[in-house]
Amino acid sequence: xxxxxxxxxxxxxxxxxxxxxxxxxxxxxxxxxxxxxxxxxxxxxxxxxxxxxxxxxxxxxxxxxxxxxxxxxxxxxxxxxxxxxxxxxxxxxxxxxxxxxxxxxxxxxxxxxxxxxxxxxxxxxxxxxxxxxxxxxxxxxxxxxxxxxxxxxxxxxxxxxxxxxxxxxxxxxxxxxxxxxxxxxxxxxxxxxxxxxxxxxxxxxxxxxxxxxxxxxxxxxxxxxxxxxxxxxxxxxxxxxxxxxxxxxxxxxxxxxxxxxxxxxxxxxxxxxxxxxxxxxxxxxxxxxxxxxxxxxxxxxxxxxxxxxxxxxxxxxxxxxxxxxxxxxxxxxxxxxxxxxxxxxxxxxxxxxxxxxxxxxxxxxxxxxxxxxxxxxxxxxxxxxxxxxxxxxxxxxxxxxxxxxxxxxxxxxxxxxxxxxxxxxxxxxxxxxxxxxxxxxxxxxxxxxxxxxxxxxxxxxxxxxxxxxxxxxxxxxxxxxxxxxxxxxxxxxxxxxxxxxxxxxxxxxxxxxxxxxxxxxxxxxxxxxxxxxxxxxxxxxxxxxxxxxxxxxxxxxxxxxxxxxxxxxxxxxxxxxxxxxxxxxxxxxxxxxxxxxxxxxxxxxxxxxxxxxxxxxxxxxxxxxxxxxxxxxxxxxxxxxxxxxxxxxxxxxxxxxxxxxxxxxxxxxxxxxxxxxxxxxxxxxxxxxxxxxxxxxxxxxxxxxxxxxxxxxxxxxxxxxxxxxxxxxxxx
Length: 732
Description:
about 725 residues; disordered N terminus
């Protein structure tokens, strides 16, 4: 539960891609909106809520598996919210107070309140704190930007954003376990543009200060057996306390300079040349403010308690042989300390855009370039080539243009601070053992839990991307088809390594004798392949009928992703390394050849329609989103009685067996209806309804582990049903 700032290193799959591979990166671009009025403002309030209890007013419909109704209504987790309310407040203003200067600002906040059971139904309510608690999610976003055009050649822009988030949590089935998470922070930037004799020089600088810290947590955690005093769970462990307070912060500053040169023309060839330089500095730290002890093993004792903090004077009703009390004999110490990392990043790029007019044979547009990156953290340089090629057919007139698209680009994941912070934090973690209740923790046997990763030996993960497509204008319509293939290589995986260099299938955090010399390490064993097809048909201009304006968009997406990990923390297990045989959909294959379970629906078909109509001083608009997502087969491991058998060393042996489970296709219809009244100023009302038909769609299979290697059972979990949002607002 120790949380820190996480930045992804693996290239994330996305259906949004372009053949053009631009080289700038690392600096957050501010919004391009500028003030257009002397004064303008808007304010609105939106609400939605839900209550799953029968005959209760609810703007949300719930679909719950019959076997899960009781547990859902008595939920202890925010992932299942039988009751909630959500408020949205939004405000914005703009002012172009002179011909050359203006300012825009906005403020938004979301306030969510989720009442939950603090204890499972099997727990009794003799605790000292509340049996029900309300979790809160409170986010704020204040943004302001100003621009000033000094003259025709020089313009300035400055922006500032403050984005804190305050979330309240509790640890389920644990007394006095509330804590707060503080996240978000500050982002500030300034941008300048100079129109010079050779082109346009752009300079931009950003400063980001972001945190993810835990506060208001109890400093120690105690896990007891049931007794007359530790008595809020007669069926299991009785836990109390928290995991202590931590500060985690990341400060990043960037400077980016680019020079866009004026085009150089030679006959039918135009050449646009750009160069850029980026410098960045990152400071990230994780700080535990005080020593925190998590006692996880309670041992019976006949001695009386002299220390009631780590010894329970209550009577264990099931005890025998006179051992009436209990004390914590084993614990994990999270030592106070600070882990701090610094890195200087250097990046540069060069790109050349070449346009060749072939007269009656069309036009060619190409972009060729190279990006260089280096940081003092990995001490490795990365060169990323990028190339794009567009061909415009010669009949590009009369709104029937045809464009062929091709791109080949490489992208590197250039920040793995998250791994280094996690790795270094383990140096603050110790396992404590004591043989009696009178031994102080500082005198207990201590074993340090430490990772053993040489990050300089890791390679930088990268993704190669190939793109091909065609864009065709059909008078008022445009149709675009694109194919993308990504090759993810050297991606990060985590595994448990023995002292002799071999790998263990057990957890490195296990306290068994066989794992005492193991260490977690990170490797570049991750591999992924993605194929993406997208098809979009839309009208480029509004189709008007009797004053009704209409826009249409039809989109088709096909995604096929294969990778040998679930996420970057996915451990490499021994059965994968030893090629353990499994039965997969009736075929006997090595475990390493088993496809990853990513639960991706292969294809999606969307239809989006937007309609607006103005009558006197009232405007009506309607937006529909129809979405069909294909079904897929999820591979579910089965219980022992249903496992397949195979001859191994002359013996018929049951092996881990995976069977397909058909997840049905899903259809949803979302709608937004709005009315705007114009009486000098404008009042508006929005009604948003998601899943209008209240379709009962399976979201994902809820897998509960059955055995350490493969067993799992499937329980359907449904997407939310119909949900209604109401918004009221006013424009000045």
